[in-house]
Design brief:
Blueprint: H1 6-36, H2 52-77, H3 89-115, H4 122-145, H5 154-181
Helix pairs in contact: 1-4, 2-3, 2-5, 4-5
Length: about 180
């Protein structure tokens, strides 16, 4: 394999710089909004759930399950799981990712609008930082995804960061909720 030319390295560096810069702006913007916004303590409730928090925990769990599908399909596509990749694995990967992020939107709106940026308890602080990180790194990943000049390591690293962010979010919210309140709707 040929080494990238200086122009290609420069384009790849520019792509990463812009993606990380825009992702950072998204993260910081969400954090500033959540911190400065007066929390309302209520944002939504879905029919069939006992509370907005229960709905949020179950939606986050669905997003986490879809993220596990993302991780597994990515490992198959990159040859890290030694199976013959079915022809539909790329489609499964794309649609499970889209669905996972779509499911997180009402959860994020509830967190931002109803709860704000938590600084009084360690679990809440970690959750707030992870939420801002998750959406920032997701934006960076989506920007790098369409750029062929990005280094080959960038997409798997950003995908891993998105998965890690969502895992921390799930552990500090949904898993905590189920552990303290039980598995109810």
């Amino acid at each position: 394999m040929n080494a990238p030319t200086p122009a290609a390295r420069s384009a790849g560096t520019t792509t990463l710089f812009l993606a990380f810069g825009i992702g950072t702006l998204v993260s910081v913007g969400l954090g500033v909004y959540a911190r400065l916004h007066d929390a309302t303590s209520f944002a939504f409730n879905l029919a069939g759930f006992s509370s907005g928090t229960a709905a949020k925990a179950w939606l986050a769990t669905l997003a986490f399950v879809l993220a596990l599908v993302q991780l597994t399909s990515a490992l198959i596509m990159y040859g890290r799981i030694p199976v013959r990749a079915p022809h539909w694995i790329g489609t499964l990967h794309r649609w499970s990712g889209r669905a996972a992020v779509l499911v997180t939107v009402p959860v994020a709106v509830h967190c931002l609008y109803a709860l704000g940026f938590e600084t009084n308890a360690l679990r809440g602080l970690v959750h707030s930082v992870a939420g801002c990180f998750f959406y920032g790194v997701f934006v960076a990943k989506m920007l790098v995804l369409q750029r062929h000049e990005a280094p080959s390591w960038a997409l798997p690293v950003l995908g891993g960061a998105v998965f890690t962010g969502l895992t921390v979010l799930w552990l500090t919210a949904a898993a905590w909720f189920f552990g303290t309140s039980g598995l109810h709707f």
